[in-house]
Specification:
Structural class of chain A: mainly alpha
CATH class of chain A: Mainly Alpha
Strand content of chain A: under 5%
Strand content of chain B: under 5%
Oligomer: heterodimer
Largest interface: A-B, 35 and 34 residues
CATH class of chain B: Mainly Alpha
Largest sheet of chain A: none
Helix content of chain B: over 70%
Shape of chain B: elongated
Distance between the termini of chain A: 55 Å
Number of domains of chain B: 1
Largest sheet of chain B: none
Number of domains of chain A: 1
Structural class of chain B: mainly alpha
CATH topology of chain A: MetI-like fold
CATH superfamily of chain B: MetI-like
Chain lengths: 233, 215
């Protein structure tokens, strides 16, 4: 039971860290993509295509093989429950690979959300004379409707991709299912536990994003006017 | 050069493999999933309440990681490894494609249905000649995005040890010297990227042709 909890927490740690990093990278790629400079735009576009075109499995394999022969430096934190501190470097490498595997897809979702606002709307917000922070907050709320649903789906897919970490000695759920099933030959039981856990975690992510969508009342026709009016007043 | 050939068509004792096997498995799974997805969508549209159980099964299937699905089928069935891989990819794909096709089939315009009735087209012919082609054409973008993802997801078959591109790249890089392994993995990444770009191009061509026909 303790091992199961540890491995489950390991999956959550890998998911949260790599997902957070992927979101940050996706924001950066989207910013490059929306830049007025042609060079930066091309750079954003190429990076997005490359990260979308190369499978996460291969990125994880490359990162794991690169990190495996090296011992983790002592200063490197180990936020991965169940993973030995000696192998924290491998866990970080796998986390970064997972981040790269999702960043391009997330960037496309963010760009679609930005595009859904429309040029007229963007110009309108510019004319309100808001500070950049308030402008970004307002636009983020405007784009939340078309962005949150695919973002949630992608983060569910990202959770599923964390299973690739099992190719290396990093503590996570799929590795535990594989190990227990091979050790005990009770495949049905451990596969059942794995399926149930992943389904529950996927549902939790989906429900969180649906909740966020509901909270922000993200329907474009329902919120546009009130949000703008609130800011303007 | 021999490394590139191994990555493209597989290791000498395991051919066809490498990128060729990845493409073959992805195409076969995509075709099977599309056929099953259309069937699923038809059941959902014609018998909504009866299909609720089927929809629940597909929803659960979407919550299972592909790697776990491959592992479970590999352990719980006595199928050969390629058949297991094909079955896992098909099930995974139908859980996504089925829902997409169902969404578009539900949106089939009532006006077109009425027109078919007025022209006394038989229900079977209306499904085969009008509804299904309309649905497939409209859902091409969404299904195409899934196909791109499916081609990349063939890499998950590496847990079964099937000699597709990721497995070949992993085996070659583990045997290679420290300077060579990066070359092997970069070559594999480039091959995936080329295959994905080619698929994207093919989808654009199909989309353009359909647009020209006024679909």
């Amino acid at each position: 039971m303790t091992a199961f909890v540890k491995q489950g927490l390991g999956t959550l740690a890998v998911w949260a860290l790599s997902g957070g990093l992927a979101l940050a990278l996706a924001v950066m790629l989207t910013t490059l993509w929306l830049s007025r400079r042609r060079g930066l735009r091309a750079c954003g576009s190429i990076l997005t295509t490359v990260t979308r075109g190369v499978p996460t499995s291969l990125l994880v394999v490359a990162a794991g093989i690169a990190a495996l022969p090296h011992a983790a430096p002592t200063w490197l934190p180990n936020p991965f429950p169940g993973t030995s501190p000696r192998l924290a470097g491998v866990a970080w490498a796998v986390t970064i690979a997972l981040c790269l595997g999702s960043a391009g897809h997330l960037a496309v979702i963010l760009r679609s959300g930005h595009a859904s606002i429309g040029t007229a709307r963007l110009e309108q917000v510019m004319l309100l004379g808001l500070t950049p922070v308030r402008r970004i907050r307002l636009l983020a709320r405007e784009a939340a409707g078309p962005t949150l649903a695919p973002l949630g789906s992608r983060l569910v897919h990202h959770l599923h991709n964390t299973a690739f970490a099992a190719l290396f000695p990093v503590a996570e759920l799929f590795g535990w299912v594989q190990e227990q099933a091979n050790d005990t030959f009770d495949v049905t039981r451990y596969v059942g536990i794995g399926v149930a856990t992943y389904v529950v975690l996927s549902l939790a992510i989906w429900a969180t994003f649906r909740g966020l969508e509901y909270y922000l009342a993200a329907g474009p026709t329902a919120t546009r006017q009130p949000v703008l009016s609130a800011v303007a007043s | 050069m021999p490394i590139l050939i191994d990555l493209m068509i597989g290791l000498p004792q395991q051919r066809p493999g490498g990128l060729l096997l990845s493409i073959l498995v992805a195409v076969a799974a995509a075709a099977a999933a599309l056929a099953l997805g259309v069937l699923y969508a038809m059941v959902c549209v014609t018998a909504r309440f009866i299909s609720l159980g089927l929809q629940a099964v597909l929803a659960i299937l979407r919550g299972i990681p592909l790697l776990l699905l491959i592992f479970a089928l590999g352990q719980l069935t006595s199928l050969s490894l390629p058949a297991t891989g094909f079955l896992a990819l098909s099930l995974y794909s139908v859980s996504h494609v089925g829902e997409t096709v169902r969404g578009y089939l539900t949106a089939y315009p009532a006006a077109l249905r009425e027109q078919a009735k007025l022209l006394t087209i038989s229900p079977a012919r209306e499904w085969l000649a009008l509804r299904i082609p309309w649905t497939l054409q409209k859902s091409l973008d969404a299904v195409g995005t899934h196909w791109i993802s499916l081609l990349k997801d063939t890499g998950a078959l590496t847990v079964l040890g099937i000699g597709e591109l990721t497995t070949v790249a992993r085996l070659l890089s583990e045997q290679a010297t420290t300077t060579q392994w990066l070359e092997v993995l970069l070559a594999a990444a480039a091959l995936y990227l080329i295959a994905v770009l080619a698929l994207m191009r093919l989808l654009t061509v199909i989309r353009t042709r359909l647009a020209r026909k006024g679909v």
